Structures are given as structure tokens and as C-alpha cells.
Amino acid sequence: MSTPQLIEPPVRPEFERMPPAPAADARRHDATIPLAKRVLDDAWLRKTLIALVLIALWECAARMVDNDLLLPTFSATCVAFVQVVVSGELIEKTAISLSVLLRGYLLGAALAFVLTSLAVSTRIGRDILSMLTAMFNPLPSIALLPLALLWFGLGTGSLLFVLVHSVLWPLALNTYAGFQAVPSTLRMTGRNYGLTGLRHVVLILVPAALPSILAGLRVGWAFAWRTLIAAELVFGASSGRGGLGWYIFQNRNELYTDRVFAGLAAVIVIGLAVEHLVFDTIERVTVRRWGVQS
User: Fold this and answer.
1) Same domain, 45 and 161
2) Which residues, in sequence order, are CB contacts of 273 under 8 Å at separation 6+?
3) Where are the alpha helices (DSSP H) in the chain?
4) Residue 30 lies in a domain
5) Least CB-packed of 48, 78, 96, 154 within 10 Å?
6) Do 58 and 188 have their domain in common?
7) Owning domain of residue 217
8) Do 250 and 156 fall into the same domain?
9) What is the pLDDT of residues 2-21, one digit of tens each?
10) Any domain includes 84
11) DSSP 14
12) Do 245 and 99 belong to one domain?
């Protein structure tokens, strides 16, 4: 009796299959779709077109007014911007403002982390955070400037005081909301590994709540930047040195309207740069890369 021979299954030829292109890329390279529609699928091009339209409206309005004292043209503003950048005056004022802003921002973020850590760890901490945010979050930071001037005088201390107030409460609220949204299974996993107190917050809650924390940091940055410029417009010069807001105020008094617009343009450019180059980059390399947020 012969032994049965084993029949091996046929071997399929290997091949490589490329994943389908995203919808936006496919539309961009689809020759059947009109060129204008493919171009408008790109977000950066759409934003650039919007910016160009706004610039054109600005230029037309300035030429209709025909008074550089009231509304300089976009070209005149660009010339003034380049002049003050080349002279180093605008860069110096911007560096002064950013130096104060960074100190106040970091101090406010540190206090927000302490408050939210206490709130998720103890009941009394939760009550303190709830009471303080209900009292001070609706209060505009610039409204505290008169008190800051009385307590700290004309100097950096007053600016730091209002900056901490502008950063602390929105960041604390967003961080605490993110901590509260962490799944209970993840919390129990941390406790099973023996993580308690600050280690539980840093190793479990902070990574899980990172999208909310980044949202709070964005809001805190926007509030702090606006508050700093507004406070510097009020006094802003200590020891003969003023920041970007004080530069705008001085040129307004001297009727250099094109330089005023150049200072405002610097405020906008810095805000956009921090928003897209700093926060978008952090979000891309953390929450999007880790799959925490789509």
C-alpha cells in the first residue's frame, strides 16, 4: 500500500499594493476635475487667497480715503515695517514684550498645574478650584491693572500679575476638564501599578488629557498676548524700556500712523507664528501621532 503524497497549496506570486490616496490628494491629481476646484481643495491656498483679498480691500479703502494720517496704504505699511525692522527698533520692542510674556505665561501655567493637581487629588482642592475659577475667570485681566499698579508699581511686576491672571484660569479649567474625562479604567490601571498623587497625575492623567491641556495652552497664550499688549498701551515703559504695545502708543502720539500699523502687523504675525509653528507642531508630534486625537 503506497503512502499518500502531500499536495502543497499553490504559492501566490507576491505583489505590493499601494494604499489609496486621501480624498483631497486624489481630487488634486484628478485631471477630470477643473483646475480651480483642485486648487481650492488646498487649505493653505484658500487662506492665502483670503489674505490677498483682505489686502486688496485694505489698499482700495486707503486709496479712497487718501489720508495717510487716518489709514495708510498696505504698501506704506510694508515700507514702514521693513524700516523699523532693519533699524532694529521693532525687534528690540518685540523682544522686551516676549520676555515678559514668557515669564508670566510659564508662571501661570505652573500655578494652573498645581491647582488642577490638587483638584483631582483632594476634595478640598476641587472646591478651591471651583470657587476660584467661578470668581476670577469672568474678571478681565486688564481690569486688575489699577490694583497691580498700586501693589507692584510701574514695572514688570504689574505686567506679570495681569499675565498670570489671564493664563491661570482658562488653562486650569481646560486641564481639569481633561482630567475629568480620563476613562476610569485608565485611572484604575495607574492605581494597580501603585501610582498615586503627583506620579498618577504626571504619568496617567497628563498624557490622557493632553488634547484638553493643549487647548488650554492655546487659549491662555491668546489671552496673555492680548493682555500684555493692552497693558503696555496703558503704561508699558519701565526703566526707560517699553515693549511692543508701548511702541504702538508712542507712534500714535507722534502721528506716525504707518508705524502704528506696522506694530499691529507685528502683533498679528507673532500671534500667527506661535499658533501655527509652536502649538500646531506640538499637537502634530504628540496627540495626532499617538492617535489620541484624529
Assistant:
1) no
2) none
3) 23-29, 35-40, 43-65, 74-87, 89-121, 123-136, 145-152, 156-180, 184-192, 197-200, 206-208, 210-234, 244-253, 257-273, 280-283
4) yes
5) 48
6) no
7) 75-288
8) yes
9) 566 666 666 666 656 655 55
10) yes
11) P
12) yes
N-terminal to C-terminal alpha carbon distance within the chain:
65
Q: What's the pLDDT at 164?
A: 93
Question: What SS3 class is residue 8?
Answer: coil
* Residue with the larger pLDDT of the pair 143 and 107: 107
User: What type of residue sits at position 66?
Assistant: D
pTM: 0.76
Question: 217: left (phi > 0), else alpha (psi -120 to 50), else beta?
Answer: alpha
The pLDDT tens digits of the residues spanning 194-205 come to 777 777 777 878
Residue 270 placed within a domain? yes
Say which residue, 290 or 263, is predicted with more confidence. Answer: 263
Question: 251 and 121 share a domain?
Answer: yes
Strands 237-238, 241-242: pairing is antiparallel
Instruction: Tell me: do 96 and 233 sit in the same domain.
Output: yes
Q: Is residue 57 part of a domain?
A: yes
CA–CA separation, 194 and 173 (whole Å): 27
Residues 192 and 50 in one domain: no
Burial category of 229 from C-beta neighbours within 10 Å (exposed 0-12, middle 13-18, buried 19 and up): buried
pLDDT digits (tens, 9 = 90+) for 115-156: 998 888 888 988 888 899 888 888 888 888 888 888 887 778
H or E element in which residue 238 lies: strand 237-238
Residue type, 161: F
Segment holding 242, helix H or strand E: strand 241-242
Tell whether 141 and 87 lie within a shared domain. yes
Does residue 66 sit in helix, strand or coil? Answer: coil
What is the per-residue DSSP string for 207-218?
A: HHTHHHHHHHHH
